[in-house]
Amino acid sequence: MEPRRQTRHDCCSPSRIDFGGVSACAREEARILAMSSPSPAFKIAFIGTHGVGKTTLCYGLAARLKKRDFSLEVVHEVARRCPLPINRETSLASQSWILHTQIAEELTAQARYPVVICDRSALDNYVYLLLAAGSQSPLDSLVEHWMESYDLLFHVPIVTPPSADGVRATDPTFQRAVEERLVDELSTRDLAVSYLDRDGRDEWLHIAERKVLSRFQSPQLRLPELDTDNHDESVQ
Questions:
Q1: Is 107 in contact with 131 (CB distance < 8 Å)?
Q2: 209 and 226 Cβ atoms separated by less than 8 Å
Q3: Please, are residues 7 and 37 in contact by the beta-carbon 8 Å criterion?
Q4: Is there a contact between 208 and 150 (Cβ–Cβ < 8 Å)?
Q5: What's the CA gap between 27 and 146, in Å, rounded?
Q6: Domain positions in the chain
Q7: What pLDDT score was predicted for residue 138?
């Protein structure tokens, strides 16, 4: 499948975004892009606190779908590139940078490819600010509208404490605090989420692949059945 091109995202150029806050223009652009972008890409996000394996699942799912001839792009976690403090020390400026950078990269990916897999959603990043400084009305509005642009959300639970990677906090108490607030936000915002079972980690990638394939009904995308070496189930 050839990469798809779109040309109507000029109105949301990153150069027009105020990274110290969120203008009414930016919020309206996010709403329009999330709700009425022409021929939008099918967008998947793995969500959860840090250190739970979201990145591994992103790459794993991307590899499986590419074997089925899907044309796709992975949007990597942007917090690692933030020039401002993150983790417990995050600030409004930090989260504004992270949020707008992620949205810009998602827009670029979905303009070029029919399938986009995201390592985190906009809400994951916002939760760190909620813990640090509480709700920020302009950003909350932006996140609310942008969350409507995802087609599938997979929640990845905590199985082990976070390991040191030189960027993310390793305190398990902080990891759990982020997880609890994220789950609460998901419930409060009434978002449709596929919750992966913490006791079934070996099945996570298989479950995600089956869920994605079940959403594609055209014969071209319903490519070969899943491997049956370890699983006898077929995509419904």
A1: no
A2: yes
A3: no
A4: no
A5: 9
A6: 43-214
A7: 85
Residue 194: Cβ-neighbour burial (10 angstroms; 0-12, 13-18, 19+): exposed
Query: Distance between CA atoms of 90 and 96, rounded to whole angstroms?
Result: 10
Per the CB < 8 A criterion, the answer to whether 181 and 130 are in contact is yes
CA–CA gap between residue 216 and residue 145 (Å, rounded): 24
Are 208 and 155 in contact by the 8 Å Cβ rule? The answer is no
Element housing 79 (H / E): none
Which of 226, 141, 135, 231 minimizes the C-alpha distance to 184?
135
Confidence of residue 226 (pLDDT cuts 50, 70, 90): very low
As given in the structure block, the two tokens for residue 42 are 């099918």
Does the pLDDT of residue 209 top 90, yes or no? Answer: yes
Cα(141)–Cα(135) distance, integer angstroms: 10
Tokens of 31: 């709403």
Rounded to whole angstroms, the Cα distance separating 1 from 70 reads: 6
What is the fold, at CATH topology level, of the domain defined by 43-214? Rossmann fold (3.40.50)
